[in-house]
Amino acid sequence: GWVETLVQNSSGPFQSPTCLAFNPKQDTLYISNMSYGSDIKTSFNILYVTREGGFMDVKGLCKFEKAETQGLAVHPQTGEIFFCNKSGGYIYRFNGPDYEDYEPLFQINRADKIDTRMVFNPEGTALFVVVGNRHCIYKVPYNALTHTFGEPELFAGGWDESGYVNGSGVTARFDNPRQPAFDQDGNMFVPEYGRHTIRKITPTGEVSLYAGLPGQAGFTDGLPEKARFNKPECVTVYLDNSLYVADRDNHLIRRVTVE
Question: Known Gene3D superfamilies for this protein (predicted)?
Answer without folding.
Answer: TolB, C-terminal domain (2.120.10.30)
